[in-house]
Every structure is written in C-alpha cells, then in structure tokens.
Amino acid sequence: MEVIKIIYIILGTFFMREQPGLIAEKATVTVDPIKKEVVIFQENLISATDIKDVKQTEEYRKLTANELNWVKELEPFQNKTLTFEEKDGKINAKLSFNYADPKDLAGIHIGFDKNEFNVFKEEKLSPLTGENRVEEPYLIYGSKTPFSFKVDVFNEWLEPNSQTATFNQEFVIQPLVAKKSDDIKGKSLIQMPSGTQPGTNPAGEALKIFFAEDQDFALINEEIEIEVKYFDNNTVMIPMTEDIGPLKKGDNYFIYKVYNDMNGVGLIPSAKNGKILSKNEIYLAMPTE
Predict the structure, then answer these.
(1) Half-sphere exposure of 72 (CA within 13 A, CB side)
(2) What are phi and psi of 178, to 5 degrees?
C-alpha cells in the first residue's frame, strides 16, 4: 500500500492520533504556487471503527473540539485550518495551509526540484488540473500556475457489495497506519544528561526504560514491569507505585519526542491532553555496547 496516497485519504495522518479511524472515499489535493497555498479536500468521510456514524467517532469529536495537535511534518506551514461540511448525507473535510518555501511540501510528499513540483504517481493517483507530464515514477507540474490531483481509497478497504461506501469489516480491527507509539516501542533506553553527545554512557545510576514492542508495558530499571498507556498527541502515561529517579509515584504523563539524530527519546512532562507542564525534559538514549 502506497504511503503517499495514505496520507491524503486518512484524516488522522495530519494529526497526532495514536490510531486514526476516519478515511475519505477520495481526496483532491490543490497546490496554488501564486498564493502559496495547499488545499486537501477529503470527500465522504468513512469510519474505519466499530462506530459507523462519523459524527459519533472519537476522532471526529476530538477534531471538532480542537483536542488534537498537527503532526510535526506540518510545523513549517502557516494558517493551518480544518473545516467540515455536510452535503447530501456525506461529511467532507477540508484542510488548508500556506507555505513559504515549496521545498517544505516534501513533508506531505510533494517534491520540488529544478523549479518544478513532482508527485509520486501510482495506480490511483491521477492529475486533475494544470499542465503536467509524466517522468516515471513521477507526475511533474510547473511552478507558475495552480494544479491539482486526486487520490482514491484502496478498493480492499471498502465493502464490495455495499450500495454506499462502507469500510470493509475485515479490516476494522487492523490499524490503518502504524501507531504513533511505534516510534518508541521496542527501544531500551537509559537516562542521559541533556546535551550529551551520542556514543557515551552516563556515569553512576541512571533511569532505564524498556518500552516493549507490540505490547503496552515497560520495564523500569530492568526489574519493575508496569503497564503503560499511549494516547493521542504523542502522549504516554507511565504509572508508578514508588518514586524512581524522575518518575514519581502516581500517573506520569509525558509527551515523547524522538531524536533520530541522537538515537534517543525525550519525555516532556505533560497533562493527559498533551499540554506541556514543565520544560524539564527527561532525555533517554540507546546505551552503547
């Protein structure tokens, strides 16, 4: 399944959902180089959960209540907005934002090179407006006039015999995309002083955490196994029955931030809703061999 198409049809990929649950039957992506604006129009939202009414889903409720944060890939963009409309019994979503540098669009898989835009062209991504040409495997657009293309949902995600677009029941229990928490699961980490260079281990006692892969538990200091919970907005809850280093007795909520260049993870104290409570970040890194 092509990841480029996935981001355009799954609403939650634009927000920090632990597990997105709304997809669009199709989406139209419009880029206006004059206004430096991108509009993504998702048509006919469909629930990929057990709750079939889109308005009753947790994702729709959280989005309309502004409880979800935009993903980090959209940080360079300004004037980010999300609106919903109901038409002919269908619910549509419209995302729009402005960019300063067209190279920033790489974050949404629209490349810019040699003064031209390029989009990976696969089976269900097709041009709509604007002059274009194909240079395999890309669809190439000029940089002077607006253009648009459309993407469609995977056939296998829809019930084949339904009169209306309905999510295939066979896939309801399967994730649409990787969970956000997969960024930290499977990692064995040790606390490091802030600003520590990679490749060094701390002296003395330090907090050690192993976030189990494919399971919601962690091993603290290689001896205490606890269940952890992952929420939207890159938030993890680590419950403690006693104080251990920076982890205090009770429910410890953190926003987790992955530092790929440092091979580490930052835990920033927060509330359950992702609101940052302190700048005292706990930095954890992969121990050296």
Answers:
(1) 8
(2) -60, 145
- Half-sphere exposure of residue 241, counting CA atoms within 13 Å on the CB side? 5
Report the alpha-carbon distance of residue 213 to residue 263 in Å, rounded. 17
Cβ atoms of 120 and 138 closer than 8 Å: yes
Confidence band for 1, pLDDT divided at 50, 70 and 90 = very low
Band the pLDDT of 261: cuts 50, 70, 90.
confident
110 touches 117 (CB < 8 A): yes
Q: Residue 30 phi/psi, 5° resolution?
A: -120, 130
For residue 31 the two structure tokens come to 């880029």
Give the CA distances from residue 267 to residues 2, 66, 148, 214, 283, in Å, rounded to whole numbers and listed in that order.
31, 23, 40, 20, 6
Tokens of 233: 């907005």
Q: Token pair 């992702």 is at which residue? A: 274
Quick: pLDDT tens for 175-210.
899 999 999 999 999 998 865 554 555 545 689 999
Distance CA 197, CA 234 (A): 24
Task: Write out the two tokens for 122.
Answer: 């696969």
Query: What distance in Å separates the CA atoms of residue 17 and residue 23, rounded to the nearest whole number?
Result: 13
Please say if the pLDDT value at position 62 is more than 80. Answer: yes
Over residues 78-107, the pLDDT tens digits come to: 999 999 999 988 999 999 999 999 999 999
Percent of the chain with pLDDT strictly greater than 90: 79
Among residues 140, 167, 236, 159, the alpha carbon closest in space to that of 24 is found at 167
- Residue ranges of the alpha helices (H) in the chain? 3-9, 58-64
Is residue 256 within 8 A of residue 236, CB to CB? The reply is yes
